């Protein structure tokens, strides 16, 4: 075994985690729990200050866990020089999209930081940020070479795409991780590191293979959600209850994974990652029209939902510019506070621009800026506000929402999650349900509901 592999095996290696967000902070915690000294570097000094005093901004690492992790030796810092002496570096910096092109700025910058401070020899570099197929070849290795390093020799390079599932049902260590590297030595060293924190690592022969696997995982999901969203539109106009039909399809024990419609597709991964693949496909001469179309389908959902809200209000005698709208759920999915690319924000922006007054409610979201105005969502539903509002939009099915009370107190409901029960004569516009009031063509007076 190399001296680095020995240091990983006996936990005397020091791990540097670069980027302390939704991915980097849990990684820092788990490497610390595995017995490593961990230095966490982030350019955001305010975040570092909060971490130092046990004030977590990541749902998956609560304050007590963070305090314990710092007590065990985790060292958050905004000073890159503190990374000197680390034996392994794991990148968890943001990778976005700028007008359809992958934004590799943070990856490039963080790679240069590693090259500057890493020891001269026996160093492992891991990219856990989500990048396009070929990014290690085109961005990471050249950035290391430009800093005088020899990738695969004095610095080992691997790609280990993160699969953590914020607020999800799988614990970190239960989720297998794909480990991609272009040589046996690099792959085995990266596997040794990640075998310390997850039950299973899956080696693949090249970094581009690991990058591609990540693209397949999230593009598969995005395309199938787009199908569920487009099926909902079909169902609304064909008199089908999409939710019941999808549930029924879900009873098939093989060859089918259930996806459901919603107000749009948010988060940092699903709407973003497939755009890396289509960008790369265009570069290498393949048009992934299916993926391009699916992206467009999902991007169009919030405005379609806005149209249905406008129609529903109008059918109940209220113009948008005079409407009071309670928005139930601002985050991009249930039981998380992450509002990145949240469709609720798009819908609220359309409502505000149409003159409606919105009353956001979300127990997990502290603030959201919409049309340059800062909103602090109520953490709980005020029944008086609900009773006096013209419509309640049920956009995110947080466990903390009491759907019975919502049904009881609302005058009109737009239910984008098929989660609000019927209550007396409360009219409900149910996304994807051709039997409810869903679109101008099929809108009926309240009494004609099922
Ligand atoms: N959030 C998820 O559920 C998830 C899941 C899998 C993969 N990923 C991927 O992991 C990567 C990180 O995502 P995230 O959700 O943790 O992002 P995040 O925005 O929560 O955290 C990123 C952190 O990196 C810091 N940062 C930015 N540039 C930096 C630099 N040059 N050097 C050091 N720190 C820097 C930011 O200040 C921020 O604290 C992305 O590529 C994302 O696609 C995210
Ligand atoms: C490591 C990583 O990359 N993990 C990803 C992460 O993705 P994520 O956190 O972005 O969450 P998603 O669940 O994919 O939701 C995205 C948006 O799509 C909407 N949606 C979803 C399902 C559906 O049937 N109908 C919908 O409309 C939902 O409301 C939300 O806005 O976790 C998933 C497991 O949860 C993983 O599989 C996925 O790889």
Automatic annotation (TrEMBL):
Sorted alphabetically, which Gene3D superfamilies does this protein's record hold? Answer: NAD(P)-binding Rossmann-like Domain
Q: Where is this region: Disordered?
A: 429-450
According to the UniProt entry, what is the EC number of this protein? 1.1.1.336
UniProt lists compositionally biased (Low complexity) regions at: 436-450
Pfam entry (one): UDPG_MGDP_dh_C
| Gene Ontology molecular function terms on file | NAD binding; oxidoreductase activity, acting on the CH-CH group of donors, NAD or NADP as acceptor; UDP-N-acetyl-D-mannosamine dehydrogenase activity
Q: Which InterPro entries match?
A: 6-PGluconate_DH-like_C_sf, NAD(P)-bd_dom_sf, UDP-Glc/GDP-Man, UDP-Glc/GDP-Man_DH_C, UDP-Glc/GDP-Man_DH_C_sf, UDP-Glc/GDP-Man_DH_dimer, UDP-Glc/GDP-Man_DH_N, UDP_ManNAc/GlcNAc_DH
Q: Any idea which UniProt keywords this protein has?
A: NAD, Oxidoreductase
Domain UDP-glucose/GDP-mannose dehydrogenase C-terminal: start-end pairs: 326-422
Report the enzyme's class at the first EC level.
oxidoreductase
Which superkingdom is the protein from? Archaea
The record lists the catalysed reaction(s) as: UDP-N-acetyl-alpha-D-mannosamine + 2 NAD(+) + H2O = UDP-N-acetyl-alpha-D-mannosaminouronate + 2 NADH + 3 H(+)
- Any one biological process term the GO annotation gives: polysaccharide biosynthetic process
Query: Of which family is this protein a member?
Result: Belongs to the UDP-glucose/GDP-mannose dehydrogenase family.
* Name assigned to this protein: UDP-N-acetyl-D-mannosamine dehydrogenase
Q: Name its species.
A: Halolamina salifodinae
